[in-house]
Write a structure and sequence with these properties.
74% helix; 151 residues; 0% strand; elongated; 6 helices; mainly alpha
């Protein structure tokens, strides 16, 4: 019993310490993390976008797997857009910081549409899934229009 209590205390202190470290992430680290999450979004969205456009044969299992990954990834990058990161070189436009409410609305909209894609995927209707993939693509693109520097 005594050992279990000691282990629990050590585990709790480790979690608290790691939470403090995470809360103090350097701005350049936050930028790298958000970029990595978005790169992975592209990795898992690209194939299903190709399926929705008829460029790649439809595969329900790949869609389901990729949508599950996309659902998790769609939530990951947003905490990396802090005021401290606006001085770090990236493709983020100043509007992401100066119009934070609009940027937050775009984030929420994207996550909502991905959530709808998850629900649609669970329904199994290929046509509906392809339609919702298109909605997610448009939503993602609209955020890039106002908040991401073009190549």
């Amino acid at each position: 019993m005594k050992h279990a209590l000691i282990a629990a205390l050590i585990g709790t202190s480790t979690l608290l310490a790691s939470g403090t470290v995470l809360a103090q992430a350097k701005p350049d680290t936050l930028v790298k993390q958000r970029q990595a999450a978005m790169t992975l979004q592209g990795k898992y969205f690209g194939p299903i976008a190709g399926m929705a456009q008829g460029k790649v044969p439809y595969n329900a299992e790949v869609v389901k797997r990729n949508v599950a990954f996309l659902d998790a990834l769609s939530k990951m990058s947003w905490d990396g857009f802090t005021p401290a990161t606006q001085e770090i070189k990236s493709r983020t436009l100043p509007a992401a910081y100066s119009d934070a409410a609009k940027f937050k609305a775009a984030q929420d909209s994207f996550m909502s549409e991905v959530g709808k894609l998850v629900a649609t995927t669970n329904g199994g209707d290929e046509a509906a899934i392809k339609t919702q993939i298109g909605v997610v693509a448009k939503n993602c693109g609209s955020c890039h229009e106002g908040f991401r520097e073009k190549n």
